[in-house]
Amino acid sequence: MLPSRLHHHSYVCADHEETRHFYEDIIGLPLRATWVERAELEGFPGRFETFCHTFYGLEDGSALSFFQFANPEVAREFKAHRQTPFVHVALSVSTAAQEEIKKRLSDAHALAFEVDHGIFRSIYAHDPNGLLVEFACDPPNVAELNAMQNATARETLRRWQAGDRTTNNDIRPGKRL
């Protein structure tokens, strides 16, 4: 059996209010839970550290979550770093939601860039913690694209592993990521 859905994706933040403002006020994800916890953390044996753990809800019940640590030493150890475009979380949105989020990000001077991948269109933003967040909108023919990939994915991966670098996304416009 496959997992049923993403439960949550976690990241570290330096300032929960700044993070809340970005996700709730700009993006529109509701703050669903805030837990203040105390636990023994990896790298700090025998010490119980306090942290705050927040969850911002997505439509399917999954969430983006963020940790902030009370102890500055622990915070430095687990500090998040700005990611490259190839390390990000991607959220599926409708065309209307993407346009609405794009406007709010633009108004907040937080829109990083846009890419037409051919297989879907995306807008990207760096959150206050350096996490790159993608808002991806599937094209009308997504079922056809998925069926084609389901039929060819293993063979394409086998060719890649064998050294064949022939591209197979012939619908991607000439934009770079």
Low-confidence stretches at least 5 residues in length (pLDDT < 50)? none
Tell me the structural class. alpha/beta
Relative helix content: 25-40%
Mean pLDDT: 93
Number of helices, counting only DSSP H or I runs of 4 residues or more: 4
- Strand line-up in the sheet with most strands: 1-4-3-2
Query: Distance N terminus to C terminus?
Result: 34 Å
Characterize the largest beta sheet: strand count, sense, and whether it forms a barrel: 4 strands, mixed
What is the N-to-C succession of helices and strands? EHEEEHEHEEEH
Structure, briefly:
The protein has 177 residues and is an alpha/beta fold.
Structure description:
This protein has 177 residues and is α/β, with parallel strands linked by helices. The protein has four helices and eight strands. It has helices at residues 16-27, 72-78, 95-107, 142-161; strands spanning 8-12, 31-40, 48-57, 63-69, 89-92, 111-116, 121-126, 132-137. The strands form two sheets. The chain has a four-stranded mixed sheet with strand order 1-4-3-2. Strands 5-8-7-6 form a four-stranded mixed sheet, with helices on one face.
